Amino acid sequence: MRERFADSDSFSRIRPKGASRRGRKADRFDDAEPEYLYFPSEDHDEFDDSEGETPPVTDGPPVGDRWSTWDQSTPTEKGPQPRPDWVITELAAVDTEFGIVKTGKEADVFLLERSVPGTERRTLMAAKRYRDAQHRMFHRDSGYLEGRQHKESRVSRAMAKRTAFGKEAIAGQWAAAEFTALCRLWSAGVAVPYPVQITGTEILMEFIGDEAGTAAPRLAQLRAEEADIDDLWEQLGRSLSLLAYDGYAHGDLSAYNILVHHGRLVIIDVPQIVDVVANPRGRSFLERDVRNVGAWFVSRGLPPEQVEALVASLAEDARLRG
User: What does the pLDDT look like over 272-313, one tens digit per residue?
Assistant: First the structure.
């Protein structure tokens, strides 16, 4: 995944089959994983790098949609240390976008390559971009915000009353909430994508997929013969235990927001992370997480009592922390 993007003769954009060039018809997160087609980039001249040719030098980014945004993020807006070796922090790097990977109710995810021209330094990342307030569907707001407080009391009151200003404030919280959660969970050892940086409403994070830019399948898509049920359940229990001991529950966990890449389980979509102690409904969120995803495992042979055992174990972990 950390090598040169794809094997094509030129940089390309990736779009889901059936999508327009702007990705308007891309599949939602809860639809089947799309197939991918390659299209020549409309924005950049093509060049053949099969013989090691480097991009031409121009006054702007040599090849790419923009200069790296690394220097636009403050230290607190960058991922936790120690950073993985694949994270590119050079200011001479450029970002090239290869189209939309997934679209959801609140945000869209794009495939992005960050590279250092003239070198072999390049990596793929997922760019998650939250939409503005007029184009989001914050169907999860009400229960998840209990126990959260804005530093300004007037903002908290507006959020509670769902005024126009309050809805704007809620919309503005999601990108920051997800980035903060990813940083905390990654540092605690939970299996989540490494968060590279946040700039405004765009989060750059580890891309979970192959070197050609194909995203890893979700747990819900795995066939029984492809999955080591016992190993995946053990991985899930370990991550959820770390999460609970830190005082949190995912809040919206299911087989649709867990990826599996070469046997590695990775939990995604965490902006609504719930404080099990501060939120009066925290325990119910925790139990619902386990039972929702546990239903997938039970349907594939996991004994139901293991699901209930995990629920009890996580509740105890959360109590110990609280």
Answer: 889 888 888 888 999 999 999 999 999 999 999 999 999 999
Which residue is listed with tokens 């990705």? 23
Q: Can you list the domains of the chain with their CATH numbers? A: 12-137+162-206 (3.30.200.20), 219-321 (1.10.510.10)
Amino acid at 151: K
State yes or no: cis peptide before 82, omega within 30 of 0: yes
* pTM of the shown model: 0.73
Task: Note the pLDDT tens digit of each residue in 119-150.
Answer: 999 999 999 998 765 554 444 544 445 444 55
Backbone angles phi, psi at 159, to 5 degrees: -65, -40
CB 133 within 8 A of CB 168: yes
88-121 burial code (b ≥16 CB/10 A, e <16): beeeebbbbbbbbbbbbebbbbbbbbbbbbeeee
| Nearest alpha-carbon partner for 10 in 98, 94, 90 | 98
* 91, amino acid identity: L
- CA 59 to chain centroid, in Å, comes to 33
CB atoms within 10 A of CB 1: 15
DSSP code of residue 75: G
Which among 21, 26, 28 has a CA at the least distance from the CA of 42? 21
Task: Give the Cα separation of 220 and 31 in Å (integer).
Answer: 10
